[in-house]
Design goal:
Helix content: 40-55%
Order of helices and strands: HEEEHEHEHEHEEHEHEHEHH
Structural class: alpha/beta
Largest sheet: 5 strands, mixed
Distance between the termini: 84 Å
Shape: elongated
Length: about 300
């Protein structure tokens, strides 16, 4: 009799343990907490207002949830998704009609639109931007967790980042640079002449070309024109024609090696791309630098 009671108790403990593990399994994916925001279930319909976030989410594979986008999210393949207007001032009515349960935005989203959406029960996520490789991998994990759960989604995000990083290195390895170390820089204008210095994703992208960024160790992103002249980079990439015209008109820079044939346009959103578009940007830069390998 004692053995039967003991066996019954052990069986009961086994069932309770199984139920507990099952319950823990269900709870392990959600809720997910991002800052003060708690996400209790997997989002089904999302609207993305930021171009780079759209790029990353697509790279992870969660663009299948995309119900709407801003005008700025114009990557190839995404133009078929309904637009909700400008990233800074989208139509909240359109977002609600799309039955969106989550909106991904950046700091440009105006406060009224944000509060109106939240009042309608739409979760607004504004992730912090990532500069370093470590920060970007963390962002991939965070977005994966939000969209697919703290285990499955997080792992999917990490795998997507690792795959992208390896692909960027593979593209670089396709270049035959004959062992020659070349120098490079990126310049853009936003009221001041700026560059991609240490700690920026743009600096990482320049590194993937195999060339040495002349501003890599600069503490400030404001361009020191004297450093630019003395370093005389082999290649200069610019955000737009304003920078190209400025350099070509200044007598002080007429002898820069890159001015005659190795100064090229790479838009700021291209150099800052952190999803699949980063591969397109790298190929574009390398095609300018090594046309024989990327003809």
């Amino acid at each position: 009799m004692k053995r039967k009671i003991l066996a019954a108790l052990l069986a009961l403990v086994t069932v309770i343990s199984a139920l507990s593990l099952s319950s823990c399994g269900e709870k392990s994916e959600y809720p997910v907490q991002i800052g003060k925001t708690v996400i209790n279930s997997e989002p089904e319909n999302i609207v993305i207002l930021n171009k780079n976030l759209a790029d990353i989410i697509s790279c992870i594979g969660y663009d299948i949830k995309l119900a709407g986008r801003s005008d700025e999210v114009n990557q190839k393949g995404m133009e078929v998704v309904p637009s909700v207007g400008a990233a800074s001032n989208p139509s909240t009515d359109k977002i609600i009609k799309l039955k969106a349960d989550m909106v991904f935005a950046d700091e440009s989203l105006n406060s009224k639109a944000k509060s109106d959406l939240e009042a309608k029960g739409v979760t607004v996520i504004t992730p912090e931007s990532a500069a370093s490789v470590k920060e970007l991998k963390a962002l991939y994990r965070q977005l994966g967790s939000i969209l697919g759960g703290s285990i499955t989604g997080k792992e999917k995000g990490a795998e997507a980042f690792d795959s992208l990083y390896e692909s960027l290195k593979d593209v670089r390895d396709a270049v035959d640079d004959k062992g020659i170390v070349r120098t490079i820089c990126y310049l853009y204008y936003d009221g001041k002449m700026r560059t991609m210095n240490s700690g920026t994703w743009g600096c990482e992208m320049l590194g993937f070309t195999g060339a040495s960024n002349v501003f890599k160790n600069e503490k400030s992103d404001v361009v020191n024109l004297k450093t630019l002249k003395l370093s005389n980079p082999d290649f200069i990439f610019c955000g737009d024609m304003r920078v190209v015209n400025y350099l070509r008109k200044k007598p002080a820079f007429k002898n820069l090696s890159a001015i005659k044939k190795n100064i090229h346009i790479i838009r700021l959103d291209e150099i800052n791309a952190q999803g699949d578009s980063a591969l397109d940007t790298l190929r574009k830069m390398l095609k300018h630098m090594y046309p024989e390998d990327f003809s």
